[in-house]
Amino acid sequence: QDGDETLEAFSEMGHEMMAQLHGERGTQGYAKPENETTGGLYTMAIQYGYGWLWHRAGLDTRQRMLCAVASFTVLRLDSQVRKFAQSALNIGLSKEEVVEAVMQTAPYGGFPPALNALAALDEILP
């Protein structure tokens, strides 16, 4: 990034990253473009979260995904753990890598959230 990106550029970058990570799931539910309830806020999440943050230097997409899964685990956001764990496989992470990222959170974020996330992974990952 050179610092000269516009909101339009961040939107485009964000949509491309969402498609890479989540595929069709990235345009459903609260992420559906025509969702009147979430549309205003989700537009900023796409620009900032997926457009700016996921394109920063220093970490690759796989590393960022492991950080996201671990963060959602500690925050006890099970639906996001499920979504991002599935997306982790889309970008080449293995089930074992995702499981290890969640397990790593147990001493820091608590064993119950880590166990809940692992149970969710067990349900959704092959």
Report on this structure.
The model has no long low-confidence stretch (mean pLDDT 92). The radius of gyration is 15 Å and the shape is globular. The protein is built from 7 helices and no strands. The chain has helices spanning 7-22, 39-52, 61-74, 78-90, 95-104, 106-109, 111-124.
Q: Helical segment tally? A: 7
- The dominant shape is globular
Could you report the average pLDDT, rounded to the nearest whole number?
92
Order of helices and strands: HHHHHHH
Radius of gyration from the alpha-carbon trace, in angstroms: 15 Å
Beta-strand percent range: under 5%
> Largest sheet at a glance?
none
- The structural class is mainly alpha
Say what oligomer this is.
single chain
For the termini, the CA-CA separation is 36 Å
- Counting DSSP E segments of at least 2 residues, the number of strands comes to 0
- Low-confidence segments, given as residue ranges, are none
Share of helix, binned: 55-70%
